[in-house]
């Protein structure tokens, strides 16, 4: 099974592809959307969960999403049709790092998609070129809750310098010319719900589709991920979502 199909199945019960509860997402969007905001952009939009919520909450807003995966964009289209917002959503199948636009956006989102840009700081650079004056950037990425040990690094396929601790992460963002106007650090409960949903949805699909050629491999992948989380990075890898504005 290709990685994108596996991700779709794994996020069936947790459409926000990050360790964030629905009320946390709502709070972040409340802080990021000014009354006069009318254009939003999601770089690495996946199935479009953030944009669909924005459009439902803000009937006058228009949005664009960018993702390299055709299946994810099709999921976003179907979801937008179901929510009645498809006429206000434009989707682009391309590398988010290569996206350019003739107009600027009042809200730019990139949550859990820093890998598409080569890291958090390059994500900020790309977003700056697309954000309207006075606009808000919502960016989410990992950080080290505590010093990672060998088990955590191995389970993540990461190195120590892939992330920093939370104070250093925020200091780096500020040094790039951004001011946090709100932020949310995912709780242990949000992480657990996300990981149990990810592994549980994938396991359930495998158990319900035993006749499928990919069922056994999918079942094993879910079990491996669960073990890597529980025995590796649980409590070590954190996730912070920041609402940012350009500094003076």
UniProtKB/TrEMBL annotation:
Q: List, alphabetically, the InterPro entries matched.
A: Methyltranfer_dom, SAM-dependent_MTases_sf
Supply the Pfam families for this chain: Methyltransf_31
Query: Superkingdom of this entry's organism?
Result: Bacteria
Q: Name one GO biological process term.
A: methylation
UniProt keywords, alphabetically: Methyltransferase, Transferase
Q: Where would I find the Methyltransferase domain in this sequence?
A: 35-143
Q: Which GO terms describe its molecular function?
A: methyltransferase activity
**Listed name of the protein:** Methyltransferase domain-containing protein
Q: Which organism is it from?
A: Streptomyces malaysiensis subsp. samsunensis
């Amino acid at each position: 099974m290709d990685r994108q199909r596996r991700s779709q199945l794994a996020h069936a019960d947790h459409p926000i592809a990050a360790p964030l509860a629905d009320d946390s997402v709502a709070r972040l969007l409340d802080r990021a959307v000014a009354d006069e905001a009318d254009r939003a952009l999601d770089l690495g939009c996946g199935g479009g969960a953030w944009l669909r919520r924005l459009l439902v909450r803000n009937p006058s807003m228009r949005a664009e999403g960018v993702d390299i995966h055709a299946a994810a964009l099709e999921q976003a289209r179907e979801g937008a049709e179901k929510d009645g917002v498809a006429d206000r959503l434009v989707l682009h199948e391309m590398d988010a790092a290569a996206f350019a636009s003739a107009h600027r956006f009042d809200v730019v989102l990139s949550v859990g998609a820093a890998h598409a840009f080569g890291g958090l700081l390059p994500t900020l650079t790309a977003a700056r070129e697309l954000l309207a004056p006075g606009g808000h950037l919502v960016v989410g990425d990992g950080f080290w809750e505590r010093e990672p040990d060998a088990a955590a690094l191995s389970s993540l396929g990461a190195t120590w310098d892939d992330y920093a601790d939370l104070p250093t992460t925020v200091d780096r963002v500020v040094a790039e010319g951004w001011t946090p106007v709100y932020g949310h650090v995912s709780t242990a409960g949000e992480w657990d719900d996300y990981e149990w949903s990810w592994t549980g949805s994938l396991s359930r699909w495998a158990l319900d589709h035993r006749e499928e050629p990919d069922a056994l491999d999918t079942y094993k992948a879910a079990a491996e991920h669960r073990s890597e989380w529980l025995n590796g990075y649980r409590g070590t890898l954190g996730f912070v979502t920041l609402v940012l504005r350009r500094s003076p």
